[in-house]
Amino acid sequence: MKLAAAAQMRELDRRAIEERNIPSIDLMERAAAEVAQAALDLLPEKPSRCRAAVFCGAGNNGGDGIGAARLLFLMGLKVRVFLVGNYDRLTPDAMEETGRLSECGVELEDFDPGDRAQAAWARSCQVVIDAVFGVGLSREIAPESEFAAALDLINVCRGAVVSADVASGVEADTGRVLGRAVKADRTVTFSLPKIGQFTGAGAVLSGRVTVHDIGIPAALVREVSCPVQTVETDFAREALPPRKPDGHKGDFGKVLVVGGSVGYTGAPYLTASAAVRSGCGLVYLGVPESIWPVEAVKCASAMPFPLADRRGVLSHRALPEVLERLEGCGVLALGPGLGRRPSARRLVLELLRQTEKPVVLDADGINALEGHIDILDSRRGRVTILTPHGGEFARLGGAPAGDTAGAARAFARDHGCILVLKDHRTVTAGPEGNALVNTTGNSGLAKGGSGDVLTGLIASLLAQGASPVMAAAGGVWVHGRAGDLAAEARTEYGLTPKDVIAAFPRVFSELQGN
Question: Is the pLDDT of residue 400 over 90?
């Protein structure tokens, strides 16, 4: 699903109005009808017994809200409409909607942050419509302004909150909160969903997002080229490599996992287990000699072997054997549980320099690149998939939190890699500058070991023949979906990384239509 930026939506509106001669007030009326219907859907009882508070700005987003207020009034609700801003700045269409509302006997009221009666009435409503800001908001909301007061009031109202187009205070292009923002139960957006409704804080604050056609020609919408898109079921299905009916274990990929250290025996085991459970034909696991007996007892399907270590951490002396083992494998999964001692860091950097094989780099494998980003740059043209969380990304010089998709796209493009930036909605970015936003997963995945599972899954799909971007983004989707299925049985509190691995077969069965 394409995710649009604010500038693209403004251009889409312009083309519909100027090139296709669609009256802008008609677009607004259709938008208002969708917002009103969403409000009706959330009412706890008959409209005649309910109240609606509508908070509007002076722009066209406010006009959508004013139009929705009129429609709700005509359906029997008791409605009050509060203008947050200057009446003299109402756009022509918003002014037209204000006149139509007035003809019904409902007047636009100035919002007064100090009016306790106004606030009490809003708090008593069964539904609240947020139409204060549209997609154009790009500056911080002043904390002492009437806009901040209005958004704060909306957030303490007991009624369900419907946001028109974008939850006010959420930056449409990034999902950042611009000072403060409305927490919507539902966001009714138009023509195309926005990037900020699926990334950053906006992915949480937008609530349930529904996309509605308001009369912009479908041909114009199809012409919008969006470098940021979501990963849905169909994409994950395409990412799943086909199985040869007469295949043998050598036909389904070979993965070498290198990691582990004293005190971190679980991470490499989980990575190897995920690779096995997701269909890889042969999985080898290279670990420090000091923990090899532990891994040998744990692993039934993967094949662990000992490597030279130094005080429980892999030594640079293991390099020749790792390279030799890697000759017979298709993908290297490097880093889970590796530790951050100099000997392990040196091993990582030399492996990245010397191997031509695809590498999935995780955890301390990523941390080893701190101060050595030139090593990553030297792999341009070779497949390198990095899977950092926010802290690891920052150590690599990634942009500050806020614009997840933009930061991921810039990093992947600048360093010629595939970046899987783990977040509430994980973003996978490729070196060509595109990004894919995941749509599965839950808070139960926010546990140690989840990232190790994801690394093994991505490496497995890559070894089985999926393209690098498909393996990365599809792997993130499968991982999240498995987490969702595991949470159904175990709850988000109780699920573990092993539960996620155990749910892989159910996900694959769904994707195969079984």
Answer: no
